[in-house]
Amino acid sequence: xxxxxxxxxxxxxxxxxxxxxxxxxxxxxxxxxxxxxxxxxxxxxxxxxxxxxxxxxxxxxxxxxxxxxxxxxxxxxxxxxxxxxxxxxxxxxxxxxxxxxxxxxxxxxxxxxxxxxxxxxxxxxxxxxxxxxxxxxxxxxxxxxxxxxxxxxxxxxxxxxxxxxxxxxxxxxxxxxxxxxxxxxxxxxxxxxxxxxxxxxxxxxxxxxxxxxxxxxxxxxxxxxxxxxxxxxxxxxxxxxxxxxxxxxxxxxxxxxxxxxxxxxxxxxxxxxxxxxxxxxxxxxxxxxxxxx
Amino acid sequence: xxxxxxxxxxxxxxxxxxxxxxxxxxxxxxxxxxxxxxxxxxxxxxxxxxxxxxxxxxxxxxxxxxxxxxxxxxxxxxxxxxxxxxxxxxxxxxxxxxxxxxxxxxxxxxxxxxxxxxxxxxxxxxxxxxxxxxxxxxxxxxxxxxxxxxxxxxxxxxxxxxxxxxxxxxxxxxxxxxxxxxxxxxxxxxxxxxxxxxxxxxxxxxxxxxxxxxxxxxxxxxxxxxxxxxxxxxxxxxxxxxxxxxxxxxxxxxxxxxxxxxxxxxxxxxxxxxxxxxxxxxxxxxxxxxxxx
Lengths: 293, 293
Hints:
The structure is a homodimer of 293-residue chains.
Chain A: H1 9-14, H2 23-43, H3 47-62, H4 70-77, H5 80-88, E1 126-134, E2 145-149, E3 171-175, E4 181-187, E5 192-193, H6 199-206, E6 212-213, E7 216-222, E8 229-235, E9 254-255, E10 258-259, E11 267-270, E12 273-274, H7 286-292
Parallel strand pairs in A: 1-11, 1-12, 8-9
Antiparallel strand pairs in A: 1-4, 2-3, 2-7, 5-6, 7-8, 10-11
C-alpha cells in the first residue's frame, strides 16, 4: 500500500496506470506527469498560482468556438506548435523548411488558372507571385498542387470576416505543368495581430510581448511521391520578422519583394519550393480501385 | 535576429519575455516553457497527439460550469493537486497532515452546538465523531472552528443534489471550548466516484484507472494563532484506501471506526487534530481599527 508523498509523487501517480493501457499513452502520460511535477517542485508553485492556472485554462477552453481555437493560440505563443512542427518535419538540406499550419486554412479552395488574380476585394498592393516547385535534385515537379492563402490588406482572412470579404478572397489552388512553375496575382501581405482579446492576449501583455505576426503568405504544397509541405513565405523587412508572436519565421522562408516601376502590378515575389520525396510509395487508394472496378 | 530552431526552442521563446515583466511570472513561465518543450522533445510528440491534446483541453474547459471544475479534476487525477498541497503545507512532526481541499466546501455552514446531528436526510449509518483540537505541545485549543462536510449515504454532497438533499446536509461548524473538544453526530462516510462522464473520466478509463475516492470526512480547522488546516479523515478498511483516484490518502489520516453494540448510534470515530502555530502574528485588521474608532 503506497500513499502519496512529495518525494515519490511521480512514482505514486504512475503506478496507478494499468500495464494493459496503450503503450504509447503510458509513455506520453509518464513523461507528462514527470515534467508537470518537476515544474511544480522547481518553482514551489503556490496554491494561489495553481488556482490562477486553473482559472486561465478554464477561460481558454470557454472562449473556444467553431471560429476560434485559443488552445492552439496558447501552444503557438509558447513555441510548442513550432516545436512539434520541427520534430515532425526534419527535412534534408536544400528542401524548403516548414512552419506552422495556422488556423485559417480552408480545404477545397477553387483551382485557378496560372496567372489568375486571387485578390477579390480590390484592396492592397498588387503583387505577382511566381516560382517553381522542384525536386531535391532541382527537377521541376509536374502536377504539384500549390494551395495559397493570406490575409487581406486590412489584416483579416476571409473566414474571419464572412460578411465583409468575398468568399475565397486571397485563396486559390494552382496545378503546375511540366515546367513546375506557378504564377498568380495577389497582394503584398500585411502583418496582423493574432486574436488578443482573450486569455492568451492577456498573457502576452503580462509578459510584455506584442501579438503581431510578420506579413506572410501561406502555402500548402502537395505532389505525388513527395512529402506534404506546409509553410509560409515572409515579407522581407517586415518590422516583426524577428519577433513573430508564434515564432514561425525561418531565415530560408524570408522572400524578396521587388517593386515594379511600371504597370498596374506594384510588386513581384519569386520563390521556389523544394519538396522531399515520400519515404514510401503510397498504397493504391480504395477510391482508385473502385474506379477501376 | 534570432529565429526559432528545434535545438534552441526554449531560449528563443524565453528571450521574448520583457525584462520588465513581473519577476515571479518570468520565473514560472521560464520553468513551464522549459518543461513543456522538454516533454515534447522527449516523447517526439506527433502532430496527431498534439491535436488530441488541444481537443482534450478544449473539451475540459467547455464542460466546466458553476457546478463543475474539470481542470481541478484533471489536476487531481494527475497528482498535481496533492503535490501543490504538499509543497505549501510542509508541517512539523506531530502536526496533523493536510490533504486536498476538494471542490465541495461551502463557506458559511451553520454553527452548531456540540453533539448536534449534521445528517439531515436520515440516510446512512449513524456515527458519533469526537476528538480534540490541540497545539503541537498537546495543549487543547479553545475557540477553534471545526468546519466539517461529507457526502451522504448515496455518495453525493448536498450541493450536487440541491433538489434532493436538505440544504447543509452533512455540514456544520463547531467551536471548541477550553477543553479543545469537538463532538457531533453524522454518518459513517461512503466511497464515491469523482464525476467521470467527462474528458477526465475518459482519460482514467484509457489509463485503466477507476474513479473512486475512499470514504472520507472533510475538515477545515481554523484557530487564532495557528495555520489553517485543510484535511480529511479516511475510513479504515475502505477498499479504495490504496487507490484514491485523487491520491488524497495519508497513513496518518486513516481513522478507526468503532462499531457500537447498543443504542441508535452505530459507530464511533475519535480523531484528534494537531495544529501548527502561525509563522507570524497577523496584523491588526482594518475592521477592528474601525470598531475602535
